[in-house]
Specification:
Strand 3 (43-46), helix 1 (49-57) and strand 4 (61-64) form a beta-alpha-beta unit. Helix 1 (49-57) crosses helix 6. The strands form two sheets. The chain has a six-stranded mixed beta sheet. The protein has a two-stranded antiparallel sheet with strand order 1-7. The protein is 43% helix and 17% strand. The relative contact order is 0.19. The protein is globular and about 60 Å long. The chain is of the alpha/beta class. It contains eight helices and eight strands.
Length: 226
């Protein structure tokens, strides 16, 4: 739920690949939300089990809805808040039914591209080098685009950008997270999200994750048996 870790060369396989995030998922509510503690008791639409764990760790109630049903759910009070990235929220006109944006990143969607190992091994070195160069350029571009679109999405939802390139700006109130929110997010990650994920994943899965992705990110998931 913190900023995704950009892969290093030592983590790459011996074939063309790239990895980059989409803009961060954030929290959008009808009523004012100035901190994670404000999620307590609220019904929050999520799109993954992990985000559901986060919401419940914050004292909220998870609501699972298809993306297309979020706007009417917020209008009717089926949900008090919802989570997605700011670009998707703006393009789906969430700013017409929410009044507050809490710009705390709570998750990322990732784009991963790779070449089949058998195909890759059959290519000559010049072709592999050219393809890997293209993949590296695509990855670098993806990270830059994610950051710029995230800023633009928040600005368009809240009217805090000089020019919205996505359409007519909204007027939701923007609330920036404080250090206490970052600390609370980490506590929820450690005490709820990782523990529940580990229970679903299983001991072998957790061991593999801790030795690879977890090590790269600086996190350790507990054994589901502990």
């Amino acid at each position: 739920m913190t900023r995704p870790v950009r892969p290093s060369a030592t983590l790459r396989a011996s074939r063309a690949e790239s990895l980059h995030p989409w803009p961060a998922s954030m929290i959008y509510c009808r009523d004012k939300i100035e901190s994670i503690s404000d999620l307590d008791g609220r019904k929050v639409r999520v799109h993954s089990a992990t985000l559901g764990d986060f919401v419940e760790g914050a004292g909220g109630v998870t609501v699972t809805l298809p993306f297309a049903e979020v706007v009417p759910a917020l209008e009717k009070g089926v949900a008090d808040c919802a989570i997605t990235d700011p670009v998707s929220a703006f393009k789906a006109s969430w700013h017409e039914v929410i009044n507050h944006v809490f710009a705390l990143p709570v998750g990322y969607s990732i784009t991963f591209t790779a070449v089949n190992a058998k195909l890759w091994d059959g290519l000559d070195e010049a072709t592999r080098n050219a393809m890997q160069t293209a993949f590296d350029e695509m990855e670098a571009s993806g990270w830059k685009i994610a950051e710029s679109e995230q800023a633009m999405g928040v600005g368009c939802l809240t009217g805090t950008v000089d020019e919205c390139t996505m359409g007519t700006v909204g007027d939701a109130e923007l609330h920036q997270p404080r250090e206490s929110d970052t600390a609370a997010r980490q506590a929820i990650l450690d005490n709820f999200v990782l523990k529940r994920w580990a229970a679903r994943c299983g001991a072998d899965c957790v061991e593999t994750w801790n030795a690879s992705a977890g090590d790269a990110a600086g996190f350790t998931a507990p054994s589901p048996e502990s």
